[in-house]
Structures
1.
Amino acid sequence: MTLRWHILTPELPPDCGGVGDYTAQVAEALARSGDSVSVYSPPASVRWSAPESLEAVTLGDRFGAESVQTLSVRLDRDPSSRLLVQYVPAVFGRRGANVTFCRWLRARGQAGADVRVMFHEPYSYFRWRPDHILTAVAQRAMARILLDAAPLVYLSTDTWRRYLSRYGSEAVRRAVTIPIPSAIPRVNCPEAIRATRSRSNGIATHLVGHFGSYGNHVAPMLRSALHDLLSSDPHVAAVCTGAGSDSFVERILAEHPELRGRLAGTGRASARDISLHLQACDLLLQPYPDGVTTRRTSVMAGLANGRAVVTSEGPLTENIWRETGSVRLAASIDALVTTARGLLSDAAARASLEACASATYASRFDLRHTIDALRSPAPAYV
């Protein structure tokens, strides 16, 4: 059956983060399945080069009055379509407190429209500043409104159930968890992988990697882990890839020049080059202050590329990681480094973890599972 989709997103490639990449993946996959897809986003400095198989519409503002007018006209012409909202409250306009737009979505849903909301994030934490407190309160109200608006809600991680249940327990009970798949397809080119490894590890025996955006929350943990691992073993080298990796590495080398030649950063790279760098590594170090979750696309990239991943267990970490054994979990930086050392010294354990990573990604996280979930009809009791 061919479906008609209108997808709202706060961002799109090339000038975007993970939500934009995810939206593009989903839209393109839905179009490949034969569905008709229109994607709506706020004005951006660079426009997305959308495939001919789908329509990209730039709204007049960031989900304000002009957006509502445009969307109302187009949706009224298409009453049997599905409206899918890629929801991240902090970037949905009005400085993260766009209650008005959420009310408009609820009105559409109450009028019979098929409104579906993908919660990438539920709301901001409370912080001791008046503006932050007001925003956090507004975002909780927005979550309640959206849970009322949508006959079907999607979650990027099961963890959001406990965050959202107090604002719409029945909607959350019916919610479908859809892990965020990797945006880095696996490149099957052994010669290129060997060449990448040769350039990256020099004379070192083992190569450790990291893929991410090197933000303020992750960077201190990663810096500490890499320093501890490299300074304790001269036979280990490391490569960091992704936007910001080059400046991140330079800051480390400025403090620890003795690591020069064994620590490198690629900077922003193509998906193909990132895949080659990931596959060139013996394992990946992926620390997170709140723990690994199914919304961490940097970990998903490691699994999709068949890598052994050592990552953080934290308050947001779901049971799926323990159930599948697809990554090694560590509760502290010391444990992260100790676990990495153990894997580097045990080729058989690394190979087993790599096989589990690939199998788990294929069976639980691959993009095809996302599309199957989205194309499924809403349950009859909704």
2.
Amino acid sequence: MKTSPRLAVLGSGKGSNFVALQQAIITGKLDATIVLVVSDLTGAGILTRAQGFGVPTATLPPSPFRTKLSPEGETGLVNLLRGHAVDWVILAGYMRVIKDPLLDAFPNRIINIHPSLLPAFKGLHAWQQALTAGVAETGCTVHFVNREIDGGKIIAQQRVPVLPGDTPESLHARIQTAEHELYPAALAKVLAQAS
């Protein structure tokens, strides 16, 4: 009997994309099991939300670097994921750059969602970048993770208009709504193709 792919979700924030994925699993729209939620921040909301669903959680030890894990921390994360027999690593607002130990351990099996229409507006605060640039539309992108920040192969995108009078907060909220629709659907497609 075929078993569902085992996912680990890595996040640094409130965990709204984790919730969207978990709800898609519960309703049968996504054939997968989230076996672990990991955060680099002890107080991250994603940990509380995961516990609310009964999903095991782990917190990474503090890193001396702000934007990445130490080599020891990254190796520890790989060991943690392997210990939970994880098939795929799903990034949901994870604010650390993914490095070689993790990339090597899960080749073409790390997926991220980014709040812009890549390749436009890579990096932090993409919705603010879009507003500053004065574009008519932005959106979100689900993509594979590689060594280039927000540079992996694009899986799916959803467009979001920039409205007159938008603030960074209002635009970001609309992008997040689109993310919650796009991420489960795109992930379901990738997992189905990989099985």
3.
Amino acid sequence: MNKIFLKLKLNLCFTYLFLILGSIIIYFPIYWTLITSFKLPISIINITYIPWIDFKPSLHAWKAVGEQAGVVKGFTNGIVVSLTSAVIAVVFGSMASYGLTRFRYKFLKFRNHDLTLWIVSQRFMPPIVVVLAFLIMFVYLGIIDTVVGLIIAYLGFNISLVVWLLKDFFKSIPIEIEESAQLEGASRLRIYWSIIFPIAIPGIVASFIICFILTWNEFLFALILTYQEAGTVPLLLAAQVTNTGIQWWRLSVLAILSLIPSIICAVILEKYMNSGLFSGSVK
């Protein structure tokens, strides 16, 4: 009995040790970035860890970022593009995923599996392959360096991602729920929006968060398709690399600020992800 208890205690100690070590590895870069944002430029090169002990904190970098042109616009553009793109992608992607799950399509030799693979293949393709085509097309359409243009560009990638993430989720929902609603005279569209969509909220919210974060952090398309008016946060971060060197203090401030929208999004939507899969759907 004592040996079993000792073994369980050792396993628990190793588990906590592993979790502590993992937490340090994950959160130390964030901590380092945070304290760097409060260092003076002259003290950046010093290896210091603890504020008020190793160095005296300063708001120099935060004030400099607050006075920097384009910061507010960059964050505003990023939020608008990320939210709009994620919402539209979730709406249309979830409907496409539901249709591929519940209906049988036939186009020439293509079936549901082939159509799904074609949609998901948009994520397999490296973005650099198509960015030049987007640039030429957007210049022709007159939507280069616009928020609308960025939203359209990101939709192609986000919709395919949502279809892939939600396909198996919809498959797990019992079809008997829909058959009962059909017997009551509900249309397919009514069944989807009133029954299936609320049930699938955990998966839909998870897909939304993933799309939001991927769009928020995307750099290549924002770099190529914008130059002044529609720039996003990754471009602000890249702009801190100047001819005189990397502005580490400003870069750290912007990096910390760039975490806030994703954290807020996750905190607000976390309760929906924790909800039961079929809560209230079957009596």
4.
Amino acid sequence: MPRFIINRVAHALLSVWAIATVTFFLAYLAPGDPAQLRFEHSASPAQLAEWRHEHGLDLAPGARYVRYLSGLLHGDMGRPFSSDAAPPVLQYLCQRFPNTALLASAAIAIALIFGLGAGIAAALKHNTWIDRILMVTILAGVSIPNFVLGPVAIAIFAVNLHWFPVAGWGSPEYIVMPAVVLALRPAALIARMTRSSMLEVLRQDYIRAARARGLSPFRVIGVHALKNAFLPVLTSAGVSFGYLLSGSFVVETIFHIPGVGEASFASIGQRDYSLIQGATVLLATIFVTINLVIDLLYGLIDPRVRAGKQEARQ
């Protein structure tokens, strides 16, 4: 087990380093001058040169990369380019991250409730009209993008029905509509995975034996079947939660939620490399950490995972 943990942690750290490196060089190669965008021709060439020197933009690529990695190791992601009065990037992102985390947590809770329920119902009613309706709904949930669903939800539930606010953040009613929009795709993925896994488990001999012993349907499904079918669902839910934390750019922008996604989206147009790199590294670290926790839980729940990895190394 210790070797398994060390191996997974090493892979996670390597992934974060690779993402940070790719992000740095993509930002370096991106067209546009942050200094020109920052001052919009209101500064002299000397002031522009001084500002570039202050932010390290006049250094050679290798020196900038070393400075960038050294700052990451010390928890320093630099300062945003958009405003000299803004707090450091890490502090700025940490101020916004609770909003993103709250939105993602609400979305994954909704996705689990509806995804598990729909997947179990589709598996129990396999090849019936209930199964077909649920599968069509699941396919629609996977297919409809957030940038389409968000404005449609605003038009129907906020503008016409006046059930929810159009956009903003604060009281609980502001969370419902963006959380549901964000939860649709992961709910569909969880439902599809639950259905597939439950169908496989329900065909096993021990399920037939449990039914033959006269156990109640709730005990057969809820205790024996769902417990063994939940491992693939756990992986799907964990990956979906990571995507929700790191991929809510569109939803946060549409609903004007002051989270990491909205800040990252705005920083792209401003060529704010420090904020782009900081947000990418932060969200990548969170995503990789979630996947690491899932791998470790998978290994603890199912010892065959550890055994299989050990046999592969031998």
